[in-house]
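We emphasize that the prediction below concerns an isolated chain of 261 residues; any contacts that depend on oligomerization or on bound cofactors are therefore not represented. The input was used exactly as deposited, without trimming of termini.
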Amino acid sequence: MSLSTNSQRAFSMLRRMRPSSAAATSSHAVTYSNAYYWQSPINTPSYNNNNNNTTRRFLQTAHEDTTKPTADIAKMMPVGMPEMNNETLVTIAALGNHNARCEVLIRHIMTVDGLDYDAAKTKFEEIAESNRAGLAVYPYFIGISMGMIAAIGSLPLVFDLTTAVWFNEGYVTTDVPEPKDLETMLEVGSWTWNWMEPPLGALSFSLLCLQYARAQLENLGLHPYTSQVINSRADRLAAAFPQYNSLLIRQYSKSDPLVKR
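Result of the prediction step, given as a token string:
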């Protein structure tokens, strides 16, 4: 087995730092990227017994502290998506980063339309506005409103005497206790709980069952409402701008929030 093959077996991580064949025959230190690569020939039996002189190489730390970046290295660090190169940007976008996907789409617009960065960004804003158009978010606002009303309204319906009496006269019509039994909020709650417990308990159990059903749908690969909205929005945006790559358009649309932040 040759000398270079033995070195590759012993130090696979230093493969790219192999010295030349001329340097392998001498005993001296060679510097690679701020570190000393020491070569020392010793008499060690080879695998094929044809060569007893093999080379062991030892990596020695350089005199300077290589764990701290220099000012030149710091100046080369990108501080935003526009400063990153294409390969890094595409990699980050593939991981699901929305800002990276926006920058990828802007550069794609520059390529397709032959625009500069500022003009391509204006076109990108047009695509972003089109992506957020539609009525798909209104069911979410309705659900938020209903949840807030139910959360706040349940407190006076249970513990406030005036509200409880009004609700009882209009929707329950049960007997009202004696005034001495309704002097405190807890006494009012013990009375109203007779009709509030069934709907609250049934509603809580229904929500628990719906959550369980949703989890099973996801296990089967069936998409709930939100996933359907996101996928249909991505298809609509790709159809609205067919001149651009549909994969990039769809990736941007899927990672874009349903409402503007």
